[in-house]
TrEMBL record:
NCBIfam families: Cof-subfamily, HAD-SF-IIB. It comes from the Bacteria. The keyword Hydrolase applies. Keywords: Hydrolase. Coiled coil: none annotated. It holds the Pfam family Hydrolase_3. CDD domains: HAD_Pase. One of its GO terms (molecular function) is phosphatase activity. One of its GO terms (cellular component) is cytosol. This is HAD family hydrolase. InterPro entries: Cof (IPR000150), HAD-like_sf (IPR036412), HAD-SF_hydro_IIB (IPR006379), HAD_sf (IPR023214). It comes from Clostridium isatidis.
C-alpha cells in the first residue's frame, strides 16, 4: 500500500529545529527518504526565505520555501518568486507607530533584507547563519532608528512585521497585539510563533493559504497534504492539511486542531511523523 501523502509542509522553529536550532540526523534522513520517494517537501516558516533556504540546503533537498508566514513562496535563490503578498506601505507605517507607542521592539523584512532599529547581536540567528554563506546568499541588515523611513524606501517589498519582547514587557506586547487586531481586523493576519512575539502580514496571508496555493500549483489534493507545526502561526496549515500533525512540545490549541501528536522537537518528532504516515508504506 502506497502512502497517500504527496506534500509535506514543515514548520521550522519548535518543529524541524531542536532547542539548539539544529536539524537532527533523524529528521534529515526521514525528509531525504520521503523526498527520494517523490514526496514534495516544503519548509513553511515565519522566518525569511534566506534562512529557510539555508536549512533546506543543509538537509540536501531542493524544495519550495514558504517564508514570512506565507507571504512569500520561492524555490531557488535566483528563481522568480512563486507568490508574494507584501504589506501596504501605509499599513506598515501604522503598525510601526503602534509598536513605538508601547515602546516595543519591532522589525520588518523583505525576502532578503531585515530592517532593525539597532544592530543585531553576534548571537542573532541570521548573523550566525551569515558566517557560513557567500555574500550573495546572506541576509542583509538595514539599521535605522526610524524604520518608517526604511519602509518608505522599500515600498512593495515589506512582507512581514515582527514584534519581540522580553518577559518584563509581556503585558504591553499582548496589548499592542490586540490593538492591531482590533484596528485592522480582516486587513491583517496577526499571530504568534512563540510566547514573546507576534508577527503581522496581510490579512489573506497565512501558512494555510500558502500551503493551499502550493498544493494547487502542484496539482496535489488537500487530503494528500501533511503539515507539521507547533505554534499559533501553524494553526491554519494544520487545519488545512489532510493530516495535521502537532509537535509534542506544541501549544494546546495546535494539539487540539491536529489529527496526530508526534514527539517533541528535541526527540525528532518530525521524523517520527514522516515514518508513520509516509515511510512505513
Amino acid at each position: 500500500m502506497e502512502s497517500k501523502i504527496k506534500l509535506i509542509c514543515i514548520d521550522m522553529d519548535g518543529t524541524l529545529l531542536n532547542s539548539k536550532h539544529e536539524v537532527s540526523d533523524e529528521n534529515k534522513k526521514a525528509i531525504k527518504k520521503a523526498h527520494d520517494r517523490g514526496v514534495n517537501i516544503a519548509l513553511c516558516t515565519g522566518r525569511m526565505f534566506l534562512s529557510a533556504k539555508y536549512y533546506a540546503n543543509l538537509i540536501g533537498i531542493n524544495t519550495p520555501i514558504i517564508a514570512s508566514n506565507g507571504a512569500f513562496i520561492k524555490n531557488g535563490y535566483n528563481d522568480k518568486a512563486i507568490y508574494e503578498n507584501p504589506l501596504p506601505k501605509d499599513i506598515a507605517i501604522e503598525i510601526y507607530k503602534i509598536a513605538k507607542k508601547y515602546r516595543l521592539t519591532i522589525q520588518f523584512n523583505s525576502w532578503n533584507v531585515l530592517f532593525m532599529e539597532t544592530p543585531a547581536s553576534e548571537e542573532h540567528a541570521y548573523v550566525v547563519m551569515n558566517r557560513d554563506l557567500p555574500k550573495e546568499k546572506r541576509v542583509k541588515f538595514i539599521i535605522n532608528e526610524k524604520l518608517d523611513e526604511a519602509i518608505q524606501n522599500y515600498e512593495g517589498n515589506i512582507l512581514k512585521a515582527g514584534v519581540i519582547e522580553k518577559a518584563a514587557n509581556k503585558d504591553k506586547l499582548w496589548t499592542a497585539k490586540e490593538e492591531i487586531k482590533d484596528i485592522f481586523r480582516d486587513k491583517l493576519h496577526v499571530v504568534s510563533s512563540g510566547d514573546n512575539n507576534f508577527e503581522i502580514t496581510v490579512g489573506s496571508v497565512s501558512k494555510g493559504n500558502a500551503t493551499a496555493y502550493l498544493a494547487n500549483m502542484l496539482n496535489i489534493p488537500q487530503e494528500e497534504v501533511m503539515c507539521i507545526g507547533d505554534s499559533e502561526n501553524d494553526l491554519s496549515m494544520i487545519k488545512y492539511a489532510g493530516i495535521g500533525v502537532a509537535m509534542g512540545n506544541g501549544l494546546d490549541i495546535v494539539k487540539e486542531a491536529a489529527d496526530f501528536i508526534t514527539d517533541t522537537n528535541d526527540n525528532s518528532g518530525v521524523s517520527k511523523a514522516i515514518e508513520r504516515f509516509v515511510l512505513k508504506y
